Amino acid sequence: MDSKKVLNIYMKAFAENLRKVRSEKFDKMSGISKNSAFNKSNYSKYEQGVGNPTIETILKMASVLEIEPKDLFNFDFDIKEYHIDD
Questions:
Q1: Residue 59 has pLDDT above 90, yes or no
Q2: How distant, in Å, are the alpha carbons of 24, 52, 72 from that of 4?
Q3: Mind listing the pLDDT tens digit for each residue in 3-57?
Q4: Contact, 51 vs 40, CB < 8 A?
Q5: φ, ψ dihedrals at 37, nearest 5°
Q6: Which end of the chain is more exposed for a tag (fewer CB within 10 A), N or C?
Q7: Which helix (H) or strand (E) holds 38?
Q8: Residue 86's pLDDT is what?
Q9: Tell me, what's the pLDDT at 46?
């Protein structure tokens, strides 16, 4: 499978987990922007699975959500299921 397709699938799984984690802390996405420097529209792309956050952004998200950065990646994704083409 094309690596871009696998990345898209992974980012959708990441986004679903991010929404779950955020909803445990804030009822609405606006809670993120009120409690951090994140712009709501900028943050929303990560919850939609269309943004590819940098490590710095991951650290900022974890900080505002008051979680460990690894918790943002606490979801099932079996990479063995996908054969990534070079």
A1: yes
A2: 30, 12, 21
A3: 999 999 999 999 999 999 999 988 777 778 777 777 778 889 999 999 899 999 9
A4: no
A5: -85, 0
A6: C
A7: none
A8: 61
A9: 94
User: What span, in angstroms and rounded, lies between the C-alpha atoms of 57 and 80?
Assistant: 27
Measured CA to CA, the distance from residue 72 to residue 83 in angstroms comes to: 24
Exposure of 8 in the CB half-sphere (CA atoms within 13 A): 5
Q: Answer whether residue 79 shows pLDDT above 80.
A: yes
Handedness of CA 14, 15, 21, 22 (dihedral sign): positive
CB 43 within 8 A of CB 33: yes
- Round to whole Å and give the CA distance between 53 and 3: 17
